[in-house]
UniProtKB/TrEMBL annotation:
Stored InterPro entries: Aminotrans_V_dom, Cys_dSase-rel, PyrdxlP-dep_Trfase, PyrdxlP-dep_Trfase_major, PyrdxlP-dep_Trfase_small
SUPFAM superfamilies: PLP-dependent transferases
Protein name, entry field: Cysteine desulfurase family protein, VC1184 subfamily
Keywords: Pyridoxal phosphate
Pfam families: Aminotran_5 (PF00266)
Amino acid sequence: MKAMPMSLDLDFVRSQFPALGSDWVFMDNAGGSQVLRDVAARVSDYLLTTNVQTGATYEPSRVSTQRVAETRQAFARFMNCDASEIVEGPSTTILLRFLSEAMTGRLQPGDEIILTNVDHEAHIGPWLRHAERGVTIKWWRCDPESFELDLDDLRALMTDRTRLVCVTHASNILGTINPIAEIADIVHEAGAELAVDAVAYAPHRAIDVQALKADYYVFSVYKVFGPHHAVMYGRRDKLEALDNIYHYFFDKSRVPHKLEPGNINYEAAWGSVGSVDYVAELGRQADGSTGRAAIEAGFAAIAEQERVVTERLMDFLTSRNSVRVIGRRSTAIEDRVSTVSFTVGDENSKRIVEAVDRAHVGIRHGDFYARRIVEEHGLLDRGGVVRVSMIHYNTVDEVDRLIAALEPEL
């Protein structure tokens, strides 16, 4: 017998996010989710009680040091890795630039980096800089009709000079979930490394970097119910092989600190633990589990709630002849996250979004810094796409409110 999907206590969920008490519906979550009450309390507590530099012998510094260490342990549970493999920073954009800089010594003229045209520019721009040093950039482009990345196209691009493949786990426009473990097998078989931007995936599904087999995996906590902070997993041996980008007296084996110039934001790091604890609490409520198992159970419940609201929206959009959904129409948990983009005939997307604004429903239009896919597929001249990005605290009633605002405009 097939197990019943885990369900969320939406009253509990929504009570944890103070902003949801307003009269606005928040459906621009791919740009940044609302923040948990506990996250804000942790940030405040850090600043008011342990706001000192780490590493000293006096008591407040020892507490601060322990708190920062606990953030790495929390995200190691979150991603299923060792705490020494957790690098922290202000944003995914910055961490990817740090990673690119730290890889400079290993990239030689004639080496190859493969990029996709569906990625956020944060996972493209830093790598393009290596072209100035003679590194060859190759493009893995999506199908112009389906917007899918074909694995056979990747295989055809790989050579014995390929050093790195960069890809998103889930597109912040398409919502499509890419098969990272399969991609990793292709990449590793050729002797290359895989860097994954998980910003648009991390709020929606459990992350297991051991199963995914990526060498580097990055996401921003402010998309996962927390503050402006980011986390990167890197396989320990891969991190040790990177250049030191901090002070000269940090040797190459000193990870993760050699990749965190200027130190991390301690209060944001401590606040971010609240996001991990929250997902674990959802899992505990769902099936009584603890530790890593609770995180997996929490995300299973999150995924089911998001499937429900995505299905409601997709059923409406696909019933309208004027609407073109950009990407997959499937709402299956394994196929997509709850980010849905579309265009409406020849209409400018800005007009659609402004009409929805009047109903106090927050959505968005544009390219969302995934500019290349929007440009290359002729979507920029109409104001980009309309994007509805939901997460688990959104409800069917909120989707119906959005539909009521959209219906006269489509």
